[in-house]
Amino acid sequence: MVIGIGVDLCEIDRLSRALQRDEGRFEARVFTPAERAYCRKHAQPGQHFAARFAAKEAVIKALGAPEGLRWHEMEVLNSTEGKPELKLSGATHLLAARLGIRCFHVSLSHTAGFAIAMVVAEDVLPTAGA
Question: Domain span at residue 63?
């Protein structure tokens, strides 16, 4: 059963300016070292940062927008096949467990100007091959 859905749209130029504005403090506050390394290895890192930022915002919405969540407790990684996956920790992980969420589905996309993410939270584990 679906417990929550979140979607967020992020303007790539705006996020790229935020990343450049404060000597990396925003980047370090919002993104984990693994996320930063992944985004920085691409020719246009702003697109990848924006998609991950949108995913984190979408997670917050899927969880019901509670206060007190931390950016580093939501990490968007890629499987070996390139599929985006969500890893939660800390209070965010505990909240998801309390809500009965056992699985998150994450979809990311971007164009030259915008990145979008959708997150679906479910109470069932995915079946093999799904």
Answer: 2-122
pTM higher than 0.85: yes
Alpha-carbon distance of 81 to 92, in angstroms, equals 26
Catalogue the E-assigned strands of 55-130: 74-78, 84-88, 103-110, 114-122
Q: Does residue 61 fall inside a structural domain?
A: yes
CATH for 64? 3.90.470.20
Cβ atoms within 10 Å, residue 93: 14
DSSP 125: P
- Asked whether the CA dihedral 82, 88, 92, 93 is positive or negative, the reply is positive
Q: How confident is the model at residue 22 (pLDDT cuts 50, 70, 90)?
A: confident
Tens-digit pLDDT profile for residues 38-97: 999 999 999 999 999 999 999 999 999 888 899 999 999 999 999 999 999 999 999 999
Domain for residue 128, yes or no?
no
* Number of independent structural domains in the chain: 1
| Residue 90, domain member (yes or no) | yes
Give residue 106's identity as a one-letter amino acid code. V
